[in-house]
Amino acid sequence: MGEELAGRTRVEMVMATIRQRIAGRSLTPGARLPSVRGLAATLKLSTSTVVDAYERLVAEGAILARPGSGFYVANQAAPFALAEAGPKLDRAVDPFWISRQSLEAGESDLKPGCGWLPPSWLPGEAMRRGLRTLARADGPALADYGSPLGLPPLRQLISRRMGERGIEASPDQIMLADSGTQAIDLLCRFLLEPGDTVLVDDPCYFNFHALLRAHRAKIVGVPYTPHGPDIELFAQVVAEHRPRLYITNSAIHNPTGATLSPVTAHRLLKLADQFDLVIIEDDIFADFEYTPAPRLAVFDGLERVIHIGSFSKTLSASARCGFIAAKPEWVDGLTDLKIATAFGGGRLTAELVLNVLNDGSYRKHMETLRQRLSRAMGEVSARLKGLGIMPWLEPPAGMFLWCRLPDGVDAADVARAALERKIVLAPGNAFSLSQSATNFMRFNVSQMLDRRVFEVLEEVLGRLRK
Asked: How far does the signal peptide extend, from start to end residue (predicted)?
C-alpha cells in the first residue's frame, strides 16, 4: 500500500512539473517534451513513473503522443473564464430553465427547485457495498452487452415489487430502460407519429412538455385537481382532440403532490376505452408512499395502461435505471426499438441496482426517508405560510409542495432574483401548458432546510411587492 501511495505521489510530481513548464511557457504549444528516459534521469525516477505521468497528461488533453516521435504540448484552448460559468439570467423560463439551472448549479448553490433528494439523504453506503460486490463480478457482468430486455433477476424483482401494489406483470412484460425519461422517449418513438396529439395534466412535470415537443407531438392539457384530472374537461378534450396518448402520475403527482382517486380512475379508464386512448403512468415516486394510492395499471391490467418507474429518486441519479411494464406484444416491439436505438441493456448499472435492492438495508432506508420527508414537509410548509406562500394542498407523501405566491407576484421574477443569489427555484408556468400558473411555484422540501432559502425568499418577496 505504501509503495502504491508513493508511486502515485511520484507520478503526480512529474505531472505537476510538466504543467508548471507549460504554464510558465518554457514549453509552448507544439513543443516536444523531454524524452521519457531523459526526464527520468533528470528527476531520478523510474521510466515507468514518467510514462504513467505522460499517459495521464495525454488523457487530460494537456499533451499529445506521436508514435515513434515522442510527446508534444497540445494546442491549448482559450482559458476558461469564470464569468462564462454564471447562470444565464436572461434565459427564457421554459421547461428547460429549471433543468439547466439545477443540473449546472455549483456545489454550494441551493436547489429547492430541483426534483431530487440531496446526496446525504440517499443510501450511499449501500451503493458502495453494491459497487464493491460488482467489482468482484465475473467478466461478462463487467464487459458484455446486456440483454435488450434487461437483467432477468432485476426484472423478476420489479415484477414482485409491482405485484405488492396490485399490478400483475410477468418479468417478460418488463423491459429495463436507462431512466424513466428514456422509458417515455422509447414509448413516444414506438406509439407516436409527428403531429399526433398527446394529453397531459396542467400542471405536469415540465420535461413531459420538452420531450413531447422533441417528438413533434401536439400537446393539449387538462386542469389537474386534488383527486386527478378534471374528468368533465377530460371527456371534452378527448372527444374533441382524439389524443393518442395521455401521460400522467397517478400517485404523488408532480408538481402538485395530489393523488388520483378511485372514482376518477374508473371514469378515466372508461373514457380511454371509449376513445382508444393509451395511458403512460409514470410511477417514479412509488416508494415514497406510506399507503399505495390507486394505480391505473391495477384497474386496467396493462391493456391500455403502460406503467413505468425508475430508481433515480431513491437510490442514485448517477446510476440510471428505469423500467417499462406493458402488454407482451408491445414489449416485443419496444425490444426491437431498443436494439435499434441503444443496442443492448445497461447491464453494469442493472447489476448495481439489483445488488442494492437485494440489500436488507433498502427497506429500512425507505422507512427512514419517508419519515424524514414527512418532518421536512411539515417544517417547510409552516415556514412558507409565514411568508404568505400557501400550499395548494398538504400532500400525504413525497418531496413536493405546490404553492401559491402572494397576490401580484410573478414566480418567474422570484426565480430570476433568487438565481442571482445562487438559489434555483421552480416557477409554476414551466409546469403549465396553458401558462396559468404565473404565481405558483414548486418547492422540494428536502432541499429547503438551509435558512438562506427562506431569507432570500423573504427579501425577494418584499422587494417585488413594493
From this structure: none
